[in-house]
Predict the 3D structure of the following.
Amino acid sequence: MNERVMQFRVGVMVLSTLLITAILIVMFGELPTFVGKTYAIHVKFDSAPGVTRDTPIRKSGILIGRVTDVQFAEDLEEGDRGVIVTAQIDRELHDDETCRVQSQLLGDAVIHVVRVDPLDAREPDGLVFKGQRMPDAVDTLPELKEILKNAGDAVTIASTALAGASERMGTAAQGVSQLIEANQVALSNAIVQATWTLAAVEQTAASVNSVIGDGETQQQVKDSVCRLSNILEDAEETIVLVNSNLRNLQEFTGPLSQNAEQRIAQFDRAVEGLAELMTNMQTFSRNLNDESGTLGQLVKNPELYNNLSQAARNVNVLTRQLEPIVRDVRIFTDKVARHPGVIVRDAISPGVGIK
């Protein structure tokens, strides 16, 4: 093979490798670290398990930098405890943001940038962020173990209950089987009777169908339904009329109920007066029937009646005889009333008189 062709191929391979590397760097977010502006931050943690050099730092799930150094805080400041993590990031953190480390199940760690209260974001010097540690899977193992234990106990109890239920179901099924065997003849008879009953029901249905299927019967049923509808309408009108009468009666009896005690007392007095009147009527009737009494003599003695009748006729005759006298006296008194001096004059010297 020609050497120049070999060199060309090697050059093409190198260029392809560099191009693929650049594409991978851009795709995986490493390009800003190399070419963009970065910021150094210092984060203090009480402990940072799994945090090493190149541990990723993410914000909202996006890679913004990596850890460059991990040291004990007491190596930097005497008497202080904890871990100081130094990292390079391509985005500046705000005053209300800090870092939170989270350990993965396989031992790796990831640092997330989260928002917190501004008072809890930085140390008093304002240069170091206050880091936080999230509980990892290892810390939750005791609780998970306890949960699994409780779940296992619950499964054991459920299995025991299920076994007991299965046993009781088997016993019940055995009892049902024995009951069927013991009452097989009765069940056969019941099935036969049920068959006869179904046949009778079918025959009854056929009879009803034959009756209802008749056109004349259907027309009679329709007429009966129409009459029933008219009857219901009349009944409704009657009910309305009764309700109206009841309302009128209520309006009539309403005022009576307002003075019920007074009206009852008046009614009692009226009844007492009626009873007294009846007593007087009975007394009058007894006196009228008694021949020795005045009323009895007046009613039953003809002679007394005739005498009274004669006296009445005599009074009538006397009245007719006195009538001219009364008329002359009325005329005389009238003239005297009109001319009183004439009477005195005529008494002294009689004259012609008053005409």
In short: The radius of gyration is 68 Å. The chain has a mean pLDDT of 77.
